[in-house]
Amino acid sequence: xxxxxxxxxxxxxxxxxxxxxxxxxxxxxxxxxxxxxxxxxxxxxxxxxxxxxxxxxxxxxxxxxxxxxxxxxxxxxxxxxxxxxxxxxxxxxxxxxxxxxxxxxxxxxxxxxxxxxxxxxxxxxxxxxxxxxxxxxxxxxxxxxxxxxxxxxxxxxxxxxxxxxxxxxxxxxxxxxxxxxxxxxxxxxxxxxxxxxxxxxxxxxxxxxxxxxxxxxxxxxxxxxxxxxxxxxxxxxxxxxxxxxxxxxxxxxxxxxxxxxxxxxxxxxxxxxxxxxxxxxxxxxxxxxxxxxxxxxxxxxxxxxxxxxxxxxxxxxxxxxxxxxxxxxxxxxxxxxxxxxxxxxxxxxxxxxxxxxxxxxxxxxxxxxxxxxxxxxxxxxxxxxxxxxxxxxxxxxxxxxxxxxxxxxxxxxxxxxxxxxxxxxxxxxxxxxxxxxxxxxxxxxxxxxxxxx
Length: 453
Known about the structure:
The protein is α/β, with parallel strands linked by helices and 453 residues long. The protein has helices at residues 14-26, 37-46, 63-73, 88-96, 109-144, 150-162, 179-188, 207-215, 232-235, 251-263, 289-295, 300-306, 323-337, 347-355, 361-375, 403-423, 428-435, 439-448, and strands spanning 6-10, 30-34, 51-55, 78-83, 101-104, 169-172, 197-201, 240-244, 265-266, 275-276, 280-285, 309-312, 344-345, 380-381. Strand 4 (78-83), helix 4 and strand 5 form a beta-alpha-beta unit. The termini are far apart.
């Protein structure tokens, strides 16, 4: 007979231990015995069990304490509490502390065997579900946060630790490094994953509109408020509120946000009625917040409220070993979006991608790959298919070349910048983001090529 599972029997009554052991062994279970709570804990630390039968009334360590410690040692072990002093109160308390079920003495061999079988099956399901969940988490994180560098492993470790909690998380890193991706991963691995993930882009909102964006307003709160609105905080109730580029929030709004974080209640602009909210707050910034605190542009008390757990997303230049994995993922994704075959990347092009410093980080890399996937001809992306920005080692200029080559590449660069500026109606911020360079670099190139006239 194949073993049905391992059972630990914990009872100070020797006849009870032996009787339960004989019954369960006859049904195919492997059994270990312990005469006290202390002995049971020692045994459980050495071996794994599917089920434990635990007498609540024993000398020494109280039975409920043994239950708690057994569950700490083996969370997936199903514990059946047995006692001759059956009361509703003790049954409820035992189940609240993690017991699978309750079996009052005296009980028949058939009742014991049936309950242990159910408990063992439930324990196996719990383990299987945990393994499936871990695999889903692994796949989700590997699809969203790509790379095996030490820097990315540290980020993934912090995400896994922070996600199950309700602690506020401050995500810091350069523009384009993937801060929102980290925030979404935390939400998807949290107990709030079935609820809303609401993003507030603090960097684009006009300060005068920020309050109503966050808190909503009542009808007639100000000129033009013809009807009541629901704020982003209320929309995120039960879920997660992500404050992107939150260092741009003004001092006055910081004070109101602080009150919300502390009291977990809001009132709409122009209203007096307060409403409790249950939101988890994640925030992100590319600025030096401690410096902003010292300069007085950011409240110290709000900073510490938002910075319970900090996750620093590394710039791409600090994890260049992740480039091949990132390239493979995004080239495949971009090709699928265009419903075409996935091109390969030549060794020469990959060498360039791996040596570029990527001032625009992952966002710049994605832009460069999208350009290459769209414009390349054939089944291989070569160096000539990459945009000019990806062919610069630091995003600040082109690779060194002969005068003829330099003039040719400069003309390509000038033409590309002019085209992108026209595409975005002269909006330099959007043009710089599309090109994968910062605004300062774009401004210098506009001046160099006299494109601002």
